Amino acid sequence: MEFFLDTANVDEIKAAQAQGVMDGVTTNPTLLSREGGDWKAQASEICKIVEGPVSLEVVGATADEMIREAEALSAFGENVVIKVPMTSEGLVATKVLYKKGLKTNVTLVFSPLQALLAAKAGATYVSPFVGRLDGISHDGMELIKQIRTIFDNYDFPTKILVASIRNPLHVLDSALIGADVATIPYKVICELAKHPLTDKGLEQFNVDWEKLTK
Ligand code: G3P
Fold it and tell me: Catalytic: 40?
């Protein structure tokens, strides 16, 4: 299972890299706007410091606009994955980009049939948003199970990239279901490493070491 970091913050990326737990990065317009400044410089730096895939999102409404943007975004680095919205125009763009050999991440996926359409269009990744579904009292992880079943039924190579992750349980459930990737906020990455018994055990070892060496 791959872990991507869901951020446009360079310090968070460097910290996750140092822990050896980061295989790629996903951004979106909201995450880039949170950082302020020149988004192009920010995106370019992220593509340089990350070895794995970096998702950069198009904002055009038509397939032609998305394809033009995708070509410009690709210039940021060989690791760029074009994030395309799950719309009819987005599917057209996905198909064209697939034929051009560009990688895509179809985003804002909220139903298994949307994921199936994206896979048929040649998406490299689909991004189902589990946290936003949970937020409207739908079961986000049930969507991941359904997509896993559909993709396995037909051997689609499209990777399931679980997005909109809110807590460690979302990561655990993604792993148990067999999602290919989870894109995780830095705060949740930090929570994954923590356990109260680890802290308690460490404290005891330190106390005993003091006694031993006094
Ligand atoms: O990057 C897409 C997705 O992970 C966004 O999550 O927190 O805005 O629902 P969120």
Answer: no
Architecture of domain 2-212: Alpha-Beta Barrel (3.20)
Nearest ligand 1 atom to the CA of 163 is 4
**Number of Cβ atoms within 10 Å of the Cβ of 171:** 21
Q: 134 C-alpha vs ligand 1 centroid, how far in Å?
A: 13
Q: What are residue 2's phi and psi, to 5 degrees?
A: -95, 145
The rounded average pLDDT for each run of 10 residues, N- to C-terminus, in the chain (214 residues) is 98 96 96 96 97 98 98 97 98 98 98 98 98 98 98 98 98 98 98 97 98 94
Mutate to test the pocket of ligand 1, among 3, 5, 6 (most ligand atoms within 8 A of CB): 6
Q: What's the gap in Å between 96 CA and the centre of ligand 1?
A: 25
Distance from C-alpha of 137 to C-alpha of 99, rounded to nearest angstrom: 38
Rounded to an integer, what distance in angstroms lies between the CA atom of residue 149 and that of residue 161?
Answer: 15
